[in-house]
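Data deposition worksheet. Section B asks for the primary sequence of the deposited chain exactly as it was used as input, without tags or linkers unless they were present during the calculation. Section C holds the resulting structure in token form. Section D is free text for depositor observations; keep each observation to a single sentence. Incomplete worksheets are returned to the depositor.
Section A, Depositor: J.P.
Section B:
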Amino acid sequence: MVERAADPLSLVFRALGDPTRREMVRRLSAGERSVGELAEPFRMSLAAASKHVQVLERAGLVRRRVEGRVHRCRLDAERLAEAQRWLAHYERFWGERLDALASLLAEDAPDPADAPPTDPRP
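Section C:
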């Protein structure tokens, strides 16, 4: 595998590739949280949660500020918006193909008016 300097979009997708980090992002979408609050539902140490937050920070998804001993995190959604714009191309791609398939299937479907009458008896 060829390693290259990671571009911002690759960092976002790598960060979101982990279910714990996706859940952290989801929780941060509701508002600022401390690292301890982010760790709580996973029953993980603060050190482990901090490592997840560092990955999210490197991807540009999270901003952290320190208040004494408490590290507060907030979502920075701009990189998510960039990823969504990239994915939107493929959403259109598949939408167009599925629409074409639906049209093709509709053309090949038998006309219900041409069907023989059904016997109403059981």
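Section D:
The first strand starts at residue 33 and ends at 34.
The beta strands are 33-34, 62-67, 70-75.
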